[in-house]
Amino acid sequence: MSKFWSEAVKRSSPYVPGEQMNISNLIKLNTNENPYPPSQQVKEAIQSEIDTNLQLYPSPTVDDLREELATTYQLNKDQVFVGNGSDEVLAFSFMAFFDPGRIIRFPAVSYSFYPVYAKLFDIPYEKVALNRDFTLPVEKFFQADGGVIFPNPNAPTSIYLDLQAIREILDNNPDCVVIIDEAYIDFASASAVSLINTYENLLVIQTFSKSRSLAGLRVGFALGNKQLIEGLNRIKDSFNSYTIDRLAIAGAKAALKDTTYFDYTITKIKQTREWVTSEMKKRGFCVLPSSANFIFVTHYKEAAEDLYKWFKENGILIRYFQSPGIDNYLRITIGTDEQMRTFFEKLDYILEKKN
Ligand code: PMP
């Protein structure tokens, strides 16, 4: 604590991301990255940008990537906002649509960055307890005062909420913005993007970090009606009009175009997820129904924290969760088949040793 800190800094309690250790000799299943590298076309597009344009500022309006996103999601360019990872887009959205003095709601078990932004920007919040089966209690999100935000599929539970429930939440919040954080939607089914032209209070946020293998490049985006996007632009231009750089723009554009590679990796990860889920169940784990690139599990008798620590000592990073509403759970990112086979070899060794 320093006497020079502002009130905002004093009340902040920053987000602590999953461990990013020396990854070369570790299997990293703790921060929901894609285990597959970006496509060849992405690498070539980035290289070509390095070779030609790096001395020039990027476009502050990111027109060509926004155009490409608009085509992909069948929207207009003025319905698309691009930022430095969806974390930045989320931060701008909290500033643009949520106010001090008006209480927002998000699930009690959810992405832990939401309370961080709320505290930083002095936005009061209410955490809504999940149902016993970890699904979202839809009606508890009705008639919110200052806004609603939740991930779909939820993180860390991996559970997907269907579009009918989302419509109900939107219908019952006509006077505030409902933000749906779709970081993992490409591993699930229908996106709420199809509702954007019906609901002026809907903002959908997505990322290139998960399904498009570009966590290292930091590109996220928001889709919503024109006025919401204009609000985000006003915030962005008050901080740094060039939030995403030339390499990010080139890489993201190429990733969007390479639909073959995208479809291939998504299908592969979903197949691995189904295989991993059934293998975990055989070993006494309860696995929540996952629509994401990770699973959320608990064992009927083993302590999750002990397993997490043992795996870490033995070269595999997974995530241990212990907080109000979550007891004894692990979140495991779906890796390649080879990584998951190594994971099961180690899991079998420790489970046998203990019994
Ligand atoms: N939302 C959720 C629910 C997440 O789990 C993550 C990844 N930690 C993000 C947003 C942020 O992703 P990024 O900033 O890499 O786009």
Compose a concise summary of this entry.
The chain is 39% helix and 16% strand. With 355 residues, it is an alpha/beta fold. The protein has 2 domains: 17-36 and 260-354, Aspartate Aminotransferase, domain 1 (Alpha-Beta Complex), CATH 3.90.1150.10; 40-257, Type I PLP-dependent aspartate aminotransferase-like (Major domain) (Aspartate Aminotransferase, domain 2), CATH 3.40.640.
Question: Layout of helices and strands, plus pairs?
Answer:
Blueprint: H1 7-11, E1 27-28, H2 40-52, H3 63-73, E2 80-83, H4 85-97, E3 104-107, H5 113-120, E4 125-128, E5 147-151, H6 163-171, E6 178-181, E7 202-207, E8 220-224, H7 226-239, H8 246-257, H9 259-282, E9 285-287, E10 294-299, H10 304-313, E11 316-317, E12 319-323, E13 326-333, H11 337-354
Parallel strand pairs: 1-11, 3-4, 3-5, 5-6, 6-7
Antiparallel strand pairs: 2-8, 7-8, 9-10, 10-13, 12-13
Helix pairs in contact: 2-8, 3-8, 4-5, 4-7
This protein binds 4'-deoxy-4'-aminopyridoxal-5'-phosphate.
GO molecular function, one term: histidinol-phosphate transaminase activity
Subunit structure: Homodimer.
Cofactor: pyridoxal 5'-phosphate
